[in-house]
């Protein structure tokens, strides 16, 4: 048995949102900024070389 360490890094870029609010007949604009975030995950896998070892990568899409 070998132990393999995988490191996954997820980068989320900086996102700016502009919100328009109508208040008493006037339009107010608000801008929100979400800072860029980096997530790092480390996984340890035990690998049995007698069995087939398959890596499956899932792509995650984030809809803002």
Notes on the protein architecture:
The protein has 64 residues and is mainly β. The protein has one domain (2-47). It contains no helices and 4 strands. It has strands at 2-12, 15-23, 26-34, 37-47. It has a two-stranded antiparallel sheet. A two-stranded antiparallel sheet has the order 2-3. A hairpin with a 2-residue loop joins strand 2 (15-23) and strand 3 (26-34). The chain is rod-shaped and about 70 Å long.
Proportion in β-strands = over 45%
Gyration radius, rounded:
22 Å
What is the molecular shape? rod-shaped
Q: Widest sheet: strand order? A: 1-4
Low-confidence segments, given as residue ranges, are none
Number of domain modules: 1
What's the average pLDDT? Answer: 80
Quantity of strands, as a count: 4
Distance between the ends:
42 Å
Key terms:
mainly beta, rod-shaped, two-stranded antiparallel ribbon
What is the topology?
Elements: E1 2-12, E2 15-23, E3 26-34, E4 37-47
Antiparallel strand pairs: 1-4, 2-3
Put the structure in a nutshell.
By secondary structure, the chain is mainly β.
């Amino acid at each position: 048995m070998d132990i393999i360490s995988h490191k996954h890094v997820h980068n989320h870029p900086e996102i700016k949102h502009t919100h328009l609010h109508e208040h008493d007949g006037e339009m107010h604009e608000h801008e929100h900024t979400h800072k860029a975030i980096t997530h790092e995950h480390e996984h340890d896998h035990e690998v049995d070389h007698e069995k087939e070892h398959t890596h499956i990568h899932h792509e995650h899409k984030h809809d803002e």
